[in-house]
Design brief:
The structure is a single chain. This protein is of the alpha/beta class. The chain starts with a helix and ends with a helix. Strand 2, helix 4 and strand 3 form a beta-alpha-beta unit. Strands 10-15-12-13-14-11 form a six-stranded antiparallel sheet. It has a five-stranded parallel sheet with strand order 3-2-1-4-7, sandwiched between helices. The chain has eleven helices and 15 strands. The protein is elongated and about 70 Å long. Helix 8 runs antiparallel to helix 9.
Length: 297
């Protein structure tokens, strides 16, 4: 389970401190700035520990550095966090820590409050820590809040742990650390319609560039079509019986009968059911798909 009580306590402490700060004279001065807060994160995609950084920041710029988006597509992130700013890493990678703070955070965004994680490092060669940042900025009248790590099953949540869980098929653990179901979206493309012939049509999608491809196998999933969620199951992999060269997502959607070719469909992975299998015939495949579906309905 996600450590809700620890998370809630941390959130409450932050919100109380933020309220006190906003009532102070220094907050009143900084409130005149167009951008009140800047939040920094080395960014692979939002997970539960990142969310503790932005909790309570109602009027914030989420400043994302070294944007790899291995855990959440940029297109999905942008819809969820409209105030996100994506840094050009090549532009800032050789900046000294003081140059980055002065030119980007203060002069560029007028930061009055800045939040970051306990293990945050920045500047060329990762020369500064979160403590260095706080010492430098608070001498200039900018309040810095350093948040402690958030644990899951006794260890800090990190992008690396989440990626490892995805690659191991531990989708429940990955989703718990993300704070939402692992999600991706792409255009539905035409396949060979083998599934349709046996009563299991699928929405076929390639994986977005850079996104972590979970362990091959069959997952219980949810498919969002035109704003509506449908139960589904998804095969991820290269199909040992009818092999493809690149990993493919093939989703059978319960209770949907329509043309999805050319449409963008969002898929959420809920539970790992089984590994990919080779089948000697379409009848054998159909029997297995019936079993897979019965484990969900």
């Amino acid at each position: 389970m996600v450590p809700i009580y620890k998370y809630s306590a941390e959130t409450a402490r932050y919100e109380n401190e933020l309220t006190d700060y906003r009532e102070s004279k220094r907050w009143n001065i900084k409130c005149k700035e167009a951008i009140e807060e800047a939040i920094r994160t080395h960014f692979d995609g939002m997970h539960l520990a990142h969310k503790t950084v932005i909790t309570g920041a109602d009027n914030a710029i989420v400043y994302c550095v070294n944007n790899k988006f291995t855990l959440l597509q940029k297109s999905i992130f942008e819809r969820r966090y409209e105030n996100a700013v994506f840094a050009d890493f090549n532009t800032i990678k050789d900046m000294s820590a003081t140059q980055f703070v002065d030119d980007i955070l203060i002069d560029g965004y007028g930061a009055g409050i800045l939040l970051c994680g306990y293990n945050f490092r920045f500047g060329k060669g990762a020369m500064w820590s979160a403590l260095d940042l706080r010492e430098y900025l608070e001498s200039r009248g900018v309040w810095v809040r350093i948040l402690e790590h958030l644990d899951y099953k006794g260890e800090p949540i990190s992008s690396t742990r989440i990626r490892n869980a995805l690659l191991s098929g531990e989708i429940g653990d990955a989703n718990a650390m993300l704070g939402y179901n692992f999600t991706y979206e792409n255009t539905v493309v035409k396949g060979d319609e083998r599934g349709r012939k046996i009563g299991f049509p699928t929405a076929n999608q390639s994986f977005p560039d850079g996104l972590t491809v979970p362990k091959y196998g069959v997952y219980e999933s949810r498919a969002e079509i035109d704003g509506k969620l449908y139960k589904s199951f998804t095969n991820i992999g290269i199909r040992p019986s009818w092999r493809v060269e690149e990993p493919l997502s093939e989703t059978h959607i319960f209770g949907f009968d329509g043309d999805l070719y050319g449409k963008t469909v969002r898929i959420e992975l809920v539970r790992y059911i089984r590994e990919e299998m080779a089948f000697s015939s379409l009848d054998e495949l159909k029997e297995q798909l019936i079993n897979d579906k019965s484990s969900i309905v």
